[in-house]
Design a protein that fits this description.
The complex is a heterodimer of chains A (683) and B (73). Chain A is α/β, with parallel strands linked by helices. In chain A, the strands form two sheets. Chain A has a six-stranded mixed beta sheet with strand order 2-3-1-4-5-7, with helices on both faces. A three-stranded antiparallel beta sheet of chain A has the order 6-8-9. The N and C termini of chain A lie far apart (71 Å). Chain A has 29 helices and ten strands. Chain B is mainly beta. Chain B has one domain: Ferrous iron transport protein A (FeoA) (SH3 type barrels, Roll). Chain B is 14% helix and 40% strand. Chain B has two helices and six strands; from the N terminus they run ββαβββαβ. The mean pLDDT of chain B is 91. The chains are: A alpha/beta (683), B mainly beta (73). At the A-B interface, helix 3, helix 7, helix 10, helix 14 and strand 10 of A face helix 1, strand 3 and strand 5 of B.
Chain lengths: 683, 73
């Protein structure tokens, strides 16, 4: 729409069906510098980038979720289709680059044909020609171009061959674009199924004209040899064996699927792959996490030593450094989860996993497409809730969103790590791993139970009914492109830290302020006491006179039934900004000084010393710590999740129900756990 | 009248019609299941649902009740 202004930077949108090599092309063109990130498993948002400087082309590049046709069904497809007509922020694209998997040409040309009929200005990019070549065929670029009457360029996604040619075409296209270009036609009759059958018939006759036989001796420099590659197929050849050229699925994938999608063993392989995924997250992340943790402990103690004993030193070392340390400590885990998910997606397995679990999930009102969001939920509920956009059925989508907070997100991990370490003697890491695995299994089982219960009462809770469907392409297996997966992982983690980081830092500072002030000097009877003891008692006195204590004492009655006191209560309230803040809150409230080798060990030491003020009883016991773990499994203590849930479900109904249901369950079950354990004689 | 949900492994048949009254029929057509096209049952999940068909050079998984709207000969 902006075509009249000459200074306007052109907007190029990348469009294509899922698995057509769109993201690879986006990476090649943008030089891997994009502003928004999609989390692995599902591209549900658009990404925007500038075409990389080295390409000498000044244009914005828009990547959006894959679409099969111009008639969207799921929310992610709606995002993509609307951005073609008019992007909410960048206006209407000047040019669409449509990716077509050459080995899937008849299926992928459907979208191309619809776009041409709707009068969009397009350039077609043929990708993955090597897959079709393996089958002995090729597509003639010239013929396809003249048949479609639009520019066609072939690109090799493995090495970027053909990018230069594409850029030339883009430049030519943008330069020659008529100012009074026709605006795209908004409504074409693609709803009509007859029209779809007609379109496919047209594409099939087109296919016979453009698919040619491929021979490998194309390396000869002679023009004759190059020409001999392109022997047009006659009709007899096309119809051999009753299959059209290349209409056979990738033979290697068929062989692999004999195992991975085997009727019985398929599920066994599925559980093995999932188990490997999750155990490797802990194994690979552990040394990195320890490194980050110890690094921050060192930084905190040395800055405290450097700055001396005053409020500023306390602010820097305890407020800022320990606060940000507790955020960064779980970044390795998120990175590794994102990386493994990205690799699984790129290899083609995630779609198969979704197929395998569709039936059991549909029994409890979910969908096979809930699988990827549920796995992402183990990293963070926010991208997971966004990833549910790929579920077309609203009821199933809302139910998936409803249970996602129960997936044990990575922010709970530092909390569990701390609480488990408290329960166990040092050096039993295998036992810690098993307890953690138990917590995960418990949280998955509870999410299934909750989904089942909600599904029973869904008429009252989720008032949505429409066609439940599962139609998913199982792409050919391929070696994941590590570079692209790594880049996406990095971008996702960066966005994640940028979103969570500031909240956590600000909250750490607020909490530091509340626990440090009004910092009066208590008078203590110093006789018969060592210097160390005096310091400790002073700290405790100072804290119980702090602002945090005054707030905390209001909630004391709620905490007493759980065997906990206001200090745990304040820490729990602070977790509403982000769960992992619990660890740094404990560190702040118990005035942990990092004299030991890591923050974690210091906190555990402080926890063992902590006593309930009124009774003098031990505050953290086996029963209260297990009660806390149960609390963390269920409680929805994450404001960002509530916000995203509200945004994605379009109202307050679901988030409010989530808060009420999950928080009351957390409180009741943790009450039962603590008092049940005590009744059994475990304190 | 036979539908795609009744196929045996490795059985290659041609689609004769799509039941357009099925709510998923439009998407079924869009992904490439059109009359005249050849399909083959390649895999099925443990509960025999969903089923994966070879169509137009790829594999597409659909639910059993959706395969019922694909009439084959």
């Amino acid at each position: 729409m902006n075509t009249s202004t000459l200074e306007h930077t052109p907007l190029i949108a990348l469009v294509g069906p899922p698995n057509s090599g769109k993201t690879t092309l986006f990476n090649f063109l943008s030089g891997k510098n994009f502003k928004t990130a999609n989390y692995p498993g599902a591209t549900v948002e658009y990404s925007i980038a500038k075409v990389h400087k080295k390409h000498l082309l000044d244009a914005h590049l828009l990547d959006s979720p894959g679409i099969i046709s111009l008639t969207p069904e799921s929310p992610d497809e709606i995002v993509a289709v609307t951005s073609l007509y008019s992007h909410p922020k960048y206006g209407a694209p000047d040019l669409l680059i449509v990716t077509v998997d050459t080995s899937q040409i008849t299926r992928h040309l459907l979208l191309v044909k619809q776009l041409i009929d709707a009068k969009f200005n397009i350039i077609v990019v043929l990708t993955m020609a090597d897959l079709l070549n393996k089958k002995g065929y090729d597509v003639s670029v010239e013929k396809l171009s003249s048949e479609l009457t639009c520019e066609v360029v072939k690109i090799d996604g493995r090495n970027g061959k053909g990018i230069d040619k594409l850029l030339q075409s883009v430049e030519k296209n943008l330069a020659h674009k008529k100012i009074s270009a026709e605006n795209p036609v908004m409504s074409i009759n693609n709803h009509e199924t007859d029209r779809l059958i007609e379109l496919y018939k047209f594409i099939e006759t087109l296919e016979e004209k453009v698919v040619v036989k491929y021979s490998k001796n194309g390396s000869s420099p002679k023009i004759e040899a190059a020409n001999s590659k392109l022997v047009i197929l006659n009709d007899n050849l096309v119809k051999t064996n009753g299959r059209k050229p290349g209409h056979r699925p990738d033979s290697l994938s068929v062989k692999i699927d004999k195992f991975l999608l085997h009727k019985m063993w398929g599920l066994v392989f599925f559980f093995i792959i999932m188990a490997i995924t999750f155990t490797s997250i802990f194994w690979l992340a552990e040394p990195l996490m320890r490194l980050v943790d110890e690094g921050f402990a060192l930084l905190s103690s040395s800055s405290a030593a450097l700055l001396g004993n005053n409020w500023f030193s306390d602010l820097i070392s305890n407020g800022i450094i320990s606060g940000s340390g507790s955020v960064l400590v779980f970044v390795p885990q998120i990175l590794i989860l994102f990386l493994i998910l990205g690799l699984l997606e790129d290899s083609g397995y995630l779609a198969r996993g979704a197929m395998l679990v569709d039936k059991p999930l549909s029994k409890i009102g979910l969908n096979g497409r809930s699988f990827v969001p549920m796995i992402s939920g183990f990293a963070c509920a926010i991208p997971a809730i966004m990833a549910t956009r790929t579920i077309p059925n609203r009821k199933e989508r809302f139910l998936t969103i409803f249970i996602l907070p129960l997936m044990s997100c990575s922010a709970r991990l530092p909390v569990y790590a701390l609480l488990i370490a408290f329960l166990l003697p040092a050096g039993k890491s295998w036992l810690a791993g098993s307890i953690l695995a138990l917590i995960y299994i418990f949280s998955i089982s509870s999410s299934i139970i909750v989904a089942g219960i909600i599904n029973k009462f869904r008429r009252n809770i989720i008032r949505e009914e429409d066609n439940s469907s599962f139609i998913l392409e199982l792409p050919a297996y391929r070696k994941p492109k590590l570079g692209i997966v790594l880049n996406n992982t990095y971008n996702s983690a960066k966005v994640y830290v940028r979103r969570a980081g500031p909240i956590i830092l600000v909250l750490s500072l607020v909490l530091w302020f509340l626990t440090y002030f009004p910092n009066y000097n208590p008078k203590i009877d110093a006789s018969n006491l060592s210097k160390e003891n005096i310091a400790q008692i002073q700290e405790a006195e100072r804290l119980s006179g702090s602002y945090a204590a005054s707030i905390g004492k209001i909630i004391q009655p709620v905490m007493t039934p759980l065997g906990m006191d206001w200090r745990v209560g304040v820490s729990l309230i602070s977790t509403f900004a982000a769960r992992e803040v619990f660890v740094s809150s404990l560190a702040l409230i118990f005035k942990v000084t990092s004299d030991e080798e890591s923050i974690q060990y210091s906190i555990i030491g402080a926890m063992r010393r902590a006593k309930i003020e009124e009774t003098g009883e031990q505050l953290f016991t086996v029963s209260t710590v297990i009660g806390l773990i149960v609390f963390f499994i269920f409680a929805l203590q994450c404001l960002s999740t509530v916000a995203v849930s509200k945004k994605e479900t379009g109202g307050w109904r679901i988030p409010i129900l989530q808060i009420i249901l999950f928080s009351s369950t957390a409180y009741i079950l943790s009450f039962i756990t603590v008092n049940g354990l005590r009744a059994l004689g475990i304190n | 009248m036979k539908t795609a949900s009744e196929l045996k492994y490795g059985e290659r048949v041609t689609i004769s019609e799509i039941d357009l009254t099925h709510p998923s029929s439009r998407r079924i057509l869009e992904v490439g299941f059109t009359p005249g096209e050849e399909i083959e049952l390649m895999n099925s999940s443990i509960f025999n649902d969903p089923l994966a068909f070879a169509i137009r050079g790829t594999l597409i998984a659909i639910r059993k009740n959706e395969a019922d709207c694909i009439i084959v000969s």
